[in-house]
Structures are given as C-alpha cells and as structure tokens.
Amino acid sequence: MGALLLLGGCQQPYRVFAVQVAAADEAPPPLPGALADARPLAVAPVAAPPAAGLGARMAPPKWDLNRVPAVTLMELPGMTPGVVTAIINGRPYRGKRELLKRKILTAEQYARWKDYLVVHRAAATSRGSAATRR
C-alpha cells in the first residue's frame, strides 16, 4: 500500500500509507507471533498538577518603553494611536512613572498598563563614564 508522493516544490519525498481504524466496540485484531503472548504494561497513575498552578494568573509580558515598537504597544487593552504616538515621541524615559509626570498618561491609564511596562536604562559607555568623572 505504500506509495511515493512528491509534493509540488518540495525536495523531500513523503510516503503515504493507509491505516485501518477499529470501531470502539470492536476487539482489536490478534497480534502475530510472539506479540500474541504479550501482556499490557501496568501504568502508574500520574500525579495531578498543584492546585495553585491551575488558577494562577500568568504574568503579563514586560515591554521596555524605550525600545517597544508602536505595533506592540497597540496590543495593550484600550490603547489608542494618539497615546502610542505620545509615548514614542517622549522617549527616552528614565522610569515608567515619567509617563505620569510628563502627563502622557492619566492615572487611570497608568494603573491599567503599568504591569506591562518597564524601563531599562542604557548601559554607560566607557567614553561617557570617563567624561562624567572629570
């Protein structure tokens, strides 16, 4: 029953075969040879996952305000294109609370989105840190 089928544009051939499936109320066909004497394996019960893991809320993704693209910011619930433009035009940020200080977000908006946003400060370069020491 094995047939060789070459899919269009695909370099690797695939074998196609038929499988006969028994109905749920039918007994399986007898196994040939040595397999006829085989007994089914005993299966140990699997422990249930901890209850805390079932209802635990997944942590929201964290997006860096200084690097996140506008398309990603639009995925936040209730985000508008005007707010995204204001966030991107206000870059760079030293902390996410600057969104409130600069009046880019209202307190309600900030409370809704603060768990999604973080600010990673840029690492100081060797030239920049030497200039600040003088």
Explain this structure to me?
Helix content is 28%, strand content 7%. With 134 residues, it is an alpha+beta fold. It has a domain at 63-118: DNA polymerase, domain 1 (Orthogonal Bundle), CATH 1.10.150. A two-stranded antiparallel ribbon has the order 1-2. A two-stranded parallel ribbon has the order 3-4. A hairpin with an 8-residue loop joins strand 1 (3-5) and strand 2. It is rod-shaped and about 80 Å long.
Q: What is the compact description of this entry?
A:
The chain has 134 residues and is of the alpha+beta class. The chain is built from six helices and four strands.
How much is the average pLDDT? 73
Q: Which architecture of the domain at 63-118 would the CATH scheme give at its second level?
A: Orthogonal Bundle
CATH homologous superfamily label of the domain at 63-118: Photosystem II 12 kDa extrinsic protein
Q: How far apart are the first and last residues' alpha carbons, in Å?
A: 82 Å
Order of helices and strands: EEHEHHHHEH
Q: What percent of residues are in strands?
A: 5-15%
Task: Give me the side-by-side strand order of the main sheet.
Answer: 1-2
Q: Main β-sheet, in a few words?
A: 2 strands, antiparallel
* CATH domain class of the domain at 63-118: Mainly Alpha
Low-confidence stretches: 1-6
CATH topology of the domain at 63-118: DNA polymerase, domain 1
